[in-house]
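Minutes, project check-in
Item: structure for the 159-residue chain
Input as provided by the requester:
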Amino acid sequence: MPREKGRKVVASNKKARHDYAILDTYEAGMALTGTEVKSLRAGRASLVDAFAQERNGELYLHGMHIPEYTQGTWTNHEPRRTRKLLLKRLEIDRLIGKTREGGLTMVPLQVYFSDGWAKVEIALAKGKKSYDKRQDLAKRDADREIARVAGRRGKGMDD
């Protein structure tokens, strides 16, 4: 069976973009079992409360939920198990160094299939304070209002 080309998004973490200021992103593979891959191909996964953490010089993804495969038998996986992330040594060292230097964390933004391989997009992020979130919402509303007014003017519907 040939591998499908392109990128198919399985799950995304929209809350992470709201709660964190994204500084840098990395693409990582994941060490998965067969039933986890089948469950992901069925589009079943959740990144809510997921985060990446360093342990013994390796990166692991905690809190990601991949439900049990419905047709699986006794070989089924544990839904919230810790999964190893597959990155190049240089990328791992860079991520570990930046998280240790202070205030930064690693959060998954989305899980997808890239040319048939399960991947996760990991972001190096800094937590936002509640006033930062309010400022972002106010800015987004102002930009939306400007775009709405500009759209009217472009269509000849001046106020």
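Outcome recorded: The first helix runs from residue 14 to 19.
No further action items on this chain.
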